[in-house]
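Dataset card, provenance and construction

Sequences and ligand SMILES were collected as paired inputs. For each pair, a complete structure of the chain with the small molecule in place was predicted and serialized as structure tokens. The example below shows a pair involving adenosine-5'-triphosphate. Curators did not alter the output after generation; any descriptive sentences attached to a record were derived from the structure itself.
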Amino acid sequence: MELVHRGKVRDVYADRDGELLLVATDRVSVYDVVLPTPIPDKGRILTALSLWWFDQLADVVPNHVISATDVPAEFAGQAIRCRRVDVVQVECIARGYLTGGGWKTYQQNGTAYGVPLPAGLVEGDRVPGGPIFTPTSKVAPEVGHDEPMTYDEVVTAVGADLAAQLRDATLALYAKASEIAEQRGVILADTKFEFGLTPDGELLVADEVCTPDSSRYWRLDDWKPGGTQQSMDKQYLRDWSDTLDWDHTAPGPRIPTDVVEGVRSRYIATYEQITGQSWNT
Ligand SMILES: Nc1ncnc2c1ncn2[C@@H]1O[C@H](COP(=O)(O)OP(=O)(O)OP(=O)(O)O)[C@@H](O)[C@H]1O
Ligand SMILES: [Mg+2]
């Protein structure tokens, strides 16, 4: 098999005609820099949780999954055989809560990435008026960082029809996923989707779905607007890295053992609470 792409987290192999093997490794990135310390089992947790979500959301938008079992033995549990698509170069983010970059821009100018919001909101509030679509450009790490895009910029980049499809699909997926999560006691505060087009123009959800790498997860019981929320996702690692004197360029810092375990246990807890299945290792 030919390695066609090494992403920050996934190794992507071309296999058979029109198919890819997406192998999630234990690598972790912060601010787009892969850190030198792996998180044990992360690749398998992300793969299992993505597969669970792909299944739950399949009736909302079709996805790229072909098989999680028809994969080489060496990648068992870490790989998804999927349909190769032309990935749309827009990261499609849905936000149901005010946090992270959206909270930052809200404090500056009353909008979450340009989407106007009423005054008086606090950090961690639910977005009044419902979840919002805040796309960003998908930029190769060698080139720079993903940048927020306005909806009009998405229209210019991909055309009005596809832009509307991306927005509607993102919000529909988020609506269903956040409802399912909430039934299980978890807030899906925001999440990122990647979409791709098949050779005959069908839009599929690709990449990973609603993992703690691509989403913010909070325990419903712990949710307390008015400050930073306790995260069950990668935010924990970002917060740790923010305590360091690090300029967000490579090489990234080594992760101490207790923080590795902090990430791992959060990812497992998220998997278990969402799926209702125990992580047996
Ligand atoms: N079905 C698919 N067909 C083609 N490419 C896909 C498909 N699903 C995911 N991808 C791509 O595979 C790569 C997965 O790797 P990973 O998630 O590690 O990348 P990343 O670090 O997030 O992004 P980058 O591509 O910038 O390295 C991404 O580039 C993603 O867009
Ligand atoms: Mg990715």
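Derived descriptions for this record:
The two ends are 29 Å apart (CA to CA).
Residues 5, 7-10, 12, 20, 22, 64, 82-85, 87, 140-141, 194, 196, 206-207 surround adenosine-5'-triphosphate (ligand 1) (CB under 6 Å).
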